[in-house]
Amino acid sequence: MNKFYVPKRNLQLVFASLVCCSCFFIQGNAHAETKPAVKSNARFDQTITGTVKDATTGEPLIGATIGVKGYSKTTSTDTKGAFSLSVPDKTPALLVSFIGYVTQEVLIRDRTNIDILLQSSATDLTQVVVVGYGTQNKKDITGAVKTLKSESFNKGIINNPQELLQGKIAGVNVTSASGEPGAKLGITIRGAGGVRGGNSPLFVIDGLPLDNSSTGGAGDPLNTINPQDIESMDVLKDASATAIYGTRGANGVIIITTKKGKAGASTLSLNSSLGFSKMARPLDVLTAAEFRAEVPKLGGSALDDKGGDTDWQKVVTRTAITQNYNLAMSGGADKLTYYASFGAQSQQGIIKRSQIDRYTGRFNATQRFLDDILIIDVNLGIANTKNERPPLGIGEAVSNNPTYPAFNADGSAAKYENMSNPILNFDLDRELTVTNRITGSISPSIRLYKGLVYKFTLGIDNSTATRDNVNKPNAVPLRDGKLETTNYVNRNTLIENYLTYTYTQKAHNLTVLAGHSFQKFFIQSRSSSINKFPITPLDPIYVPGSGQELTLAGNRPGGSAYENKLQSFFGRINYQYDERYLLTVSMRADGSTKFGANNKYGYFPSFSLGWRISEEEFMKNSPFSNLKLRGGYGETGNQEIEPKSTQPLFITELSAGQSYPLYPTGPYSAGTVFRRLANPDLQWEKSKQTNLGLDFGLLNGDLTGSIDVFKKVSSNILLIVPPTDPVQPAPTLWANIPNMTVTNKGIEVDLGYTKTISKNIKLGLGGSFSYITNKVAGSPYSIIPSGSAQGAGLTSATVNGYINGEAVGTYFLKEFTGFDANGISTFLDKDKDGTVTDKDRVIAGVAIPNVLYSFYLNVAWKGFDLVANFNGVSGNKIYDNTANANFYKLRLSKNVNVTKEAIAFTQESINNSAPVSTRYLKDGAFLRLNNLAVGYNFNTTALGISKWVPTIRLSATGQNLFVITKYDGYDPEVNLDRNIDNFTSYGMDYLSYPKARSFIISLNASF
Q1: CA 362 remoteness from chain centre
Q2: pTM, full prediction
Q3: 228 near 478, Cβ under 8 Å?
Q4: pLDDT tens-digit profile of 240-250?
Q5: d(CA 781, CA 110)
Q6: Given this structure, which CATH class describes domain 264-646+682-1003?
Q7: pLDDT band per the 50, 70, 90 thresholds, residue 72
Q8: Which CATH number describes the domain made up of 33-119?
């Protein structure tokens, strides 16, 4: 699909919603404010000149924006940091901003020449950090909280907010196992916790906790959030910070804050980009010439040579094009500020017939009434995504006989009886998912008394999706057509009420929070299928009624539905004395319908302390611009288990032994089978975490950093187990294992250095490092699988899992030692009993990396800038299930292509089996140049266009430019690719969609 498809109905929905919201708030502002939001008819009779410089170094800032407060007029500084701006008489103030610096309001006071000094945001300890149900200054934070601003986000083709964080924060591991557009990402904070309870953090957008259940296909529901609408992301890592979210805080919390308008000049910005992507690392399979040479050597089937020379990986892939456009307007007056945007993205996948198109709209506004006694915040986001997935994986492309031509002489796809041509499948099969999502909240807050504010929030997150899986009928090879349709509905409703009281007297500063929250989730799916379509040019998706098999027996509809409710009471106290001594205490009580009648409520306390040592009298002459010691303890829970887990499970069967026909030759009737017992005592997993941290600043704030050490113990682990009483009508039940624990311990380091070397050169560099270990204890099983082999003959054999005394994802395998005289694999006989069995398996490494690191370099020279971001991992191994299942000599002897590695052992027999063993275990460490961007900010003043176009930026970005690794698969980033029986899969390469190397050209301008 090459054209940029724009569904008219969806665009109408986006624009209508934005226009209605805009009209409502602008009309409200007209009654509350006598002056217009942006003045455009004033006379600009006075000229203000001056300079903008770095407050620390005195060096000029090139391209800083200077605006007139309350007006749309702006200008920017030249190469000497100088500016000249015409302003109306009696203008009270200028607004001055520059990337990486704190925006400043400068009072004019009858001056005509003003020299302005901006403080770097890197050293701004008054930076506001979102901590859940409120904000705090950075200097007052006592927990392990990291903030990433939009100017520090990763660059390139970004579909998902999680990609913005990759390699940016210590202890946060973001993995993208698939290169498919819109594919789900994996993210863990401070290691893996539970077993079946999920390991992903809670996402909160503008105060609304999200339900990230997928609404169809393999896409990630976070893809519906436009990354260009995000202002900042705050990562809450330790339990003293996350306990305020109770049962959902065990895996960390990521708070997404979208962009808001600011009082003053209205700004219209246009961001556009065009990207090109190619497969980064093809598999090293045999060429046609090598295939012809190797097959006869094996003595198997005769060489099946069709005379072609086909690189099937090239045939099924392409140079993919990505287009991205984002139009945003923001501004306002003292009583109304707003931000509105519309975004459109079309991204082709590198495998043909894969593509995602996304259209987003956002409107955020803040309206102030009655001298700020009443403040209403509105956040509204709308998204439509259309995700087309390829009809097959890459498996056929790497296995097909390279001597078979892909195309006939006339250019049509070649058809073969004994081999599938993926080009033909591209025309016959497709999977299409269309998703609509609306996320929004309205939050009025009322100042009831001096320092006392009541806030009410009503939030919604509703999404619907339709997934059509289409198989067209065909003559060669012969098959019937089929259409499978599944409809999904996700509804998330939030009602919150809370009070915040702030009291300040002399050296004492106290903030007290108390509130109630009610959140309801509803998820439903309905599926149906129609078979036996006639061979016509029409796509079954458009003529479902032409299917000839509509009987209930052949096309039984399916589906599921569940509702979950969460009621919470929460409170927090923040106390500060003399800006030196800090205390935070919080408590949350959660009641969830996911758990049993006897354990619906849980209680999650936390406390943390901070000491700003740099504010002490004895530190006045120290080299530290900031030095803060902090420590905390907290308890959190994890409720991310399957719905209805406390209830009994019945399933329908239509097979012998499970149901019975009404008469001997009749069909099997639907029978009910009791599969799982109820457990009214079921409750959430628990996590207890301690954290000790140190924040510091040196060299006048040029060098900043933090060091954290932590220990997190997850207990009360949730598992499906057999009942203790063997005489039961069902074989399993959900239960908490009270003595089982998963312990994570680690150290995290974040460093950053910024320096203005001269008036034209500014340097920034830094990075992060984390070392995390974990251990499983008290498991009732010898191993709980977290990775199993998939493929013909491998019978889902366990590869890695949870083993007592070992790390999560530990490999437990037979040790490969070579080949015997007959070319058959040999393995270590550990117990020396003369027979190799599963008892001879050995501990062979870990799937999860224990070292995560990243580093970056930023250089600015005059109007040019360069940004490079690297990230890597080490300490982990990868099980190459792709090679185990697909690449061995027996397949080559049957004219199926393999890699060169598969024939590397000349002594290996074609009759050798390929059991699970360390033969396929490989080093998973890597270092990746994640993105490299070069940009230029035009001096619009020198060009004489600053009145109309204040800023213009042109940039070029390379993404995934190289990866240094010993692993020979498509990519070493394979964790979290799929689930095995609802256990998260670690370290398994299942031949997923290959990753791309991308190059992007971007043009951004403001008006």
Answers
A1: 20
A2: 0.85
A3: no
A4: 999 999 988 88
A5: 79
A6: mainly beta
A7: low
A8: 2.60.40.1120
